[in-house]
Amino acid sequence: MTVLLTLYVLVWPLVVAGVLFVIGRAFYRELRAAKAEGRSII
Amino acid sequence: MLLFFGGSFYMSVRISKKKENADGYMTGGGNIGFGISAASMTATWIWASSMYASATSGYTYGISGPIHYGLWGALMILLIYPFGRRIRAVAPRAHTIAEVMFARHGRSSQLMLAGSNVLGSVISLTSNLIAGGALIDLLTPYTFTQGIIAIAAGVLLYTLWSGFRASVLTDFAQVLAMLGAVVVIIPVVFFAAGGPGLFESGAENLTPQQQDFFSSDAFFNQGAPYIAAVLAYAIGNQTIAQRLFAVREDLIKKTFVTATFGYGATIIGVGMLGVIALYAGVEPLGGDLNNLIPQMAATYLNPALLCLFFVMIIGSLSSTADSDLTALSSIVMTDVYGQNIAGKKRANPRTMVLIGRLTMVVAIAAALVFAGFKLNILDLLVFVGALWGALVFPVIASFYWGRVTNLAFSVAVVAGLAAFLPVRFSWVDLSGGLGLVSDVLSTVGVGIVLGLMAFGFFGKRVALVVGTVATLVAAPFAIGFLHTYPVLSGSLVAYAVSTIVCVGLTLLNKGTFDFALIKERTGDFDTEPGTKSLDDQPRQGEPVAARGEIS
């Protein structure tokens, strides 16, 4: 039970790290594309 | 705070234009990429209040508490994306949902939706200021009042000039800070509070219900009302709609799915601070649960991580507060000035931008005044969500069912609200026959909520089956029982009454609406030539069949 509860608490920061990576990578690609085309990202 | 708001201001200055475009000020041109839109959707959905409320839920209901706050909120983001795609398909260049309702029905529907959004956004702004003020009061030498003024000024500073464009760009930086902080802070607090051993040494601090992952207390008091409330939030909230109209149309699904994971993991993760506090036997300062998260941070984090925590909370409240400001400005620009004062043909884009900026100033001043009352954040959230429950069916039906009329929409919403208030606030005695009526309506409401969720993904037939089966299965357990949970009952009754009235009045109408008209009636304010005005066109309810436009 202790192990399960520990995993239950610690799994969320791992998922958050995954989402952070996905968003960060997409933003970087969009920023590069915008610079290459000479336009604002937004 | 200086660094945070200074950095946000610098970002907004980098993208600012001398003459801001009215459509850019409201939706960023409707062509935003996945990275920014996913970040913005995540940041907007995560507000400081939801972090506080999730931790409160964890502390109050035990290990399942954060799930009953965060999971349902996350699933709602996922469940509404099919509706989002439909809304975007019929109104690709709109700015607000209320504007679309004007095009679909007319003024009363538009003003009901706009009014509810103004109320919701002002409450949201207020609760975020309260959360920030409480944090500053607890962790710094400054007072609550000084804290809320500083935050209000900071958010206004970077949002005022460029509006929505500044809001979504700074959302990206705020998401990096927030999510980055969550990755670090939760494990650190967990191990500082005792790590895995805490679950053995602190088990005696929990009641059997708090130790139960399938706690009925947690479900009926927190999870179930929240399921009903957040569906309404997702449909009725202009901050979400604004991002829906801003993201590139083919990226809607990807954006919503990413935000689902981002929001869910972040909020459930922060809720774990409440669970840890419960196991550790922490008592909230002054008995105020809003103090719980700052108190945990102050107890277990070193000064550097405490700064990171501070950024996490300030980031979450700023990202939502700036979204509320831009939502409010869009509503006043489009729904008040653009369509009701000047008229779409005569609306001056430069005047619109000025009105948008003035709206932001007035809104933040109002939120500052309300924040002084220090209301309970969780109660506010559930109340607004339930209030919006009366709007959900009429709004969704208006995008799919051509026979829904302005009268059906308006009367349904008013009837839903009229039924909601006495149940939610126990103004009537529900122990007798009225309780039975309330339970029957609540049971129907269960079927409607689940049916609507199924409808987005699987269509009408599956939705009707799911709704009917859910109502029949719930009936034996719910009737005679649900009225003892007024928060849940009020919300479900609002869904049921508004749906029944809307369907009943709609069936009386034999005409049907041509959805293609919405695309013509909504659109950019900055490109005047060729734009059709609402004032030039027949209103909903006119016999479109006579124009050969039956859809």
From TrEMBL, chain A:
The keyword Membrane applies. It comes from the Bacteria. InterPro entries: Trnsprt_adja_ssu-like. Keywords: Membrane, Transmembrane, Transmembrane helix. The chain crosses the membrane at residues 6-28. This is Transporter small subunit.
From TrEMBL, chain B:
It catalyses: L-proline(in) + Na(+)(in) = L-proline(out) + Na(+)(out). The keyword Transmembrane helix applies. It is found in: Cell membrane. The keyword Transport applies. It comes from the Bacteria. Residues 524-551 are annotated as: Disordered. Coiled coil: none annotated. Pfam families: SSF (PF00474). CDD domains: SLC5sbd_DUR3. InterPro entries: Na/Glc_symporter_sf, Na/solute_symporter, Sodium:Solute_Symporter. Keywords: Cell membrane, Ion transport, Membrane, Sodium, Sodium transport, Symport, Transmembrane, Transmembrane helix, Transport. Its main location: membrane. PROSITE patterns: NA_SOLUT_SYMP_3. Gene3D superfamilies: Sodium/glucose cotransporter. The chain crosses the membrane at residues 24-47, 67-84, 111-136, 142-164, 176-199, 219-236, 256-280, 300-321, 354-374, 380-400, 407-427, 433-455, 462-482, 488-508. It is a multi-pass membrane protein. Belongs to the sodium:solute symporter (SSF) (TC 2.A.21) family. This is Sodium:solute symporter family protein. It comes from Promicromonospora umidemergens.
